[in-house]
Amino acid sequence: RQRQMCIRDSRYLVDGEVVLDDGPTENGFNVLTLRGAVRRFRMNRRRLFRAIYGIFVDRFGCKREGGPRDRLGGDLSFIRDKLGYIRSMGFDAIYLTPIFRAMSYHRYDVTDYLNVDDDLGGNEALKKLLGSAHDLGIKVILDLPIHHTGSDHPAFKAALGGDPEYSRWYYIYNGDYEKFMDVRRMPKLNMKFAGEWVKGIVLHWALMGVDAFRIDVGAGIPPWFLWDLGNFINKPLIAEVWGDPFLWRNAVDGVMNYQVWEPLIKFLHNEISAEEFAQVLRRQLAVLPRHFLENSWLFIDTHDTPRAVTMLDNDVEKLKAALVFIYTWVGTPMLYYGDEVMLEGGPDPDNRRCMDWGRINSPNALHDFIRALTRLAIAPRRVMASSNELIYYDDRFEVRISNEGREYKGGVLSGKYFIIKTK
């Protein structure tokens, strides 16, 4: 695989390393000779992460007071200081919401993709975070908002000014342009023409040491481009897909599995039956590759949903049942910061409250429970429903989750709405 990076010298990306070729030329062009077998790219068929801790960067370590849409001072240095805390719960990866220079506190409206926002400590802060994380065995996953840029991005400004090249990067017509969720500061990119630029951005951060990327609004990006990006960068890609992930099953390593999240919450909230929930799980087992499911993220909430403890009416036992599911069903658990201390929150932006560090020693905190779940290794292959119980198992364990209080006893772990027991 080769890619010319500059005009005077040729640089190639070979097996993850940048090689400068200043050797012989033929007819004015550099010649690159590849010796040995050429390996065909294959999607990862192994488990990428054991468990992921998701961080809304601006709110993990707030330094000042303000409104829900203000920048409150969370930065990468604070996250670096808390890596030991994160690792102690069994997490081997952190997922960071966008860290690039951007227009707003959430940074999904990027203005400069090649530099970390100065408010977060700049590029040097990321380098230090990567070094410390890797020393602890923690991988770093960056959020990539490449479905759209910010309206203040120089490329979009040039496009609005009529630049013929950059005008193709966006969908501009009839005096208007396509946007994400009709938000004017988020103009949509056209990957047919901006795709090579996007590849360069991802390569830049991969070479710095970033381990994987979460693709924001992945369902709005053509699967062919995500497949191409994955082949080019050879780093794990996880796409945000709220609906059926079937079309992306061969394009990325996994998805944020919203198709399972919604029925999980509805089941525990007594809005659907165990059988209805089981049907969703059976279908995914039937139509999605096993490795794709294993690398898709399971979660109880995210920065785009209300907090689980709020949706479940502050019932800590139902919250535990939800955690049991994401740690024992087929997938990779992703815990949104603050879930371990039952941080409350309604819809965006209330779901992005400052982390409450005063709660970490609370008797209701879930750190020990999460550690116990992390030690389990369950690989279910069959699921069924009986009455109000969801039941699944592998060769060693059986998991039962109910939306009616059953006061389960014994087993490896048990509670009012769940039990994990050996067979």
Outline the structure in words:
By secondary structure, the protein is an alpha/beta fold. 30% of the residues lie in helices and 22% in strands. It contains 14 helices and 23 strands. The strands form seven sheets. It has an eight-stranded parallel beta sheet with strand order 16-15-14-9-6-5-18-17. A five-stranded antiparallel beta sheet has the order 19-20-21-23-22, covered by helices on one side. α13 (316-328) runs parallel beside α14 (367-374). The chain starts with 9 loop residues before the first strand and ends with a strand. 44% of the residues are buried.
Outline of this structure?
With 423 residues, the protein is α/β, with parallel strands linked by helices. The chain has helices at residues 57-60, 76-81, 83-88, 122-135, 154-160, 164-167, 191-208, 223-233, 258-268, 274-287, 290-294, 308-311, 316-328, 367-374, and strands at residues 10-14, 17-21, 25-26, 29-30, 52-55, 93-96, 100-102, 110-116, 139-144, 172-173, 176-177, 179-180, 183-187, 212-215, 237-241, 254-257, 297-298, 332-336, 382-386, 389-393, 397-402, 413-414, 418-422. Helices cover 30% and strands 22% of the residues.
